[in-house]
Amino acid sequence: MKLSANEEYGLRCLVRLGYAGENGSITIPEMSQAEGVSAANTAKILRALRKGGFVKAARGKEGGYTLARPAGDIVIAEVMECLGGRLFESSFCDSHGGRTGICTRSVDCSVRSLWRAVQVAVDHVLSKTTLRDLLQNEEEMNSWVRTIPGPNGMRLLQ
Amino acid sequence: MKLSANEEYGLRCLVRLGYAGENGSITIPEMSQAEGVSAANTAKILRALRKGGFVKAARGKEGGYTLARPAGDIVIAEVMECLGGRLFESSFCDSHGGRTGICTRSVDCSVRSLWRAVQVAVDHVLSKTTLRDLLQNEEEMNSWVRTIPGPNGMRLLQ
DNA sequence: AGTAATCTTGACTAGAAAGTACAGATTAGG
DNA sequence: CCTAATCTGTACTTTCTAGTCAAGATTACT
After folding, report:
1. Most buried residue, B38, B50, B96, B135, by most Cβ within 10 Å?
2. DSSP state of B130
3. Residue A152, Cβ neighbours under 10 Å: how many?
């Protein structure tokens, strides 16, 4: 159970776009440099986010990416599903469920219900979090960081 | 964020061993056939579980695998870590934290704290669940299933 | 000792995910 | 209409995980 690179990068890109504001547009080279990810890869991820309907792209000169909706309407659970699929895609149980789809191998089911519990726990966090929440968290951190300068130019969080 | 095949198979194997009881031994061919997974792959997964200290192996004729501890002492969170690693292994933030290990790129941190929240939610489920819990769940399901025979030989759960 | 059943190990192959490259399409502005 | 900046789509390469295979080591039973 690991976070995929797509999920990590993709969400970072969204946060940065949200941070740029409603009309703030960011190009692939800009995003690439800011995140330290290659332009080709950044392009690929932003493309996925566009297909998911989270961002919109403007082509040509003066083009770039913008959030497709207000940050408060972008639910992180949906973003994660777009970038990395569902946690539990039961390839195993389904093959034993027959036409009813109900798994008859009992030993499978107890495992399956555990996965379901995990999925519920994860969804409980992610489906209640919007991009706006992340941006606000960001603001808090920034103001906090600003008040506590650390040694040799670093900012300490504790 | 997906469950790996290792996690899925490995946990199934553990449940089946637990189901076989404290002294119940299962060989690789038996497990292989019961789970519908190739013997070579089953062997590999059981090996991982042995290295993790969850099962013990007896070699030679009459050999096989047995639980290394009572089912109630086997915490699923540990099993999952053994089979699939931690959810959030921060490759990204750490590279921006310098010697203190604290990430100074604010845009990273809000994402990071989200991952942490997800990890906590998952751990809350998995670290409170032992193999014994899964086996009991199993028992309940079996007795339930037995009471409701479905059409053409299937057992319906609802 | 011999034999058959069993786990162990390391190397190999296949497949999926991540990352790269490049030619093509679109747009703003001169 | 031309150019430069920008996204788009497809195909390629690399890297990591999953799965396979064969030779070796161990044990119980005779």
Report:
1. B135
2. B
3. 7
What pLDDT digit, counting tens, does each position of B73-98 carry? 999 999 999 998 888 765 555 444 33
Q: Nearest Cα to A22, choosing from A66, A52, A53, A82?
A: A66
Whether the beta carbon of A86 falls within 7 A of nucleic chain C: the reply is no
| Assigned fold of B1-74 | Arc Repressor Mutant, subunit A (1.10.10)
Which amino acid belongs to residue B42?
T
Q: Which two tokens stand for residue B91?
A: 């490759």
Q: Using the C1' atom of nucleotide C26, identify the protein residue whose alpha carbon is closest.
A: A60
A24-51 as b/e: b if 16+ CB within 10 A: ebbbbebbbeebebeeeebbebbebbee
Nearest CA to CA, how far is B17 from chain A (Å)? 10
Tokens of B44: 């590999």
| pLDDT of A131 over the 90 cut | yes
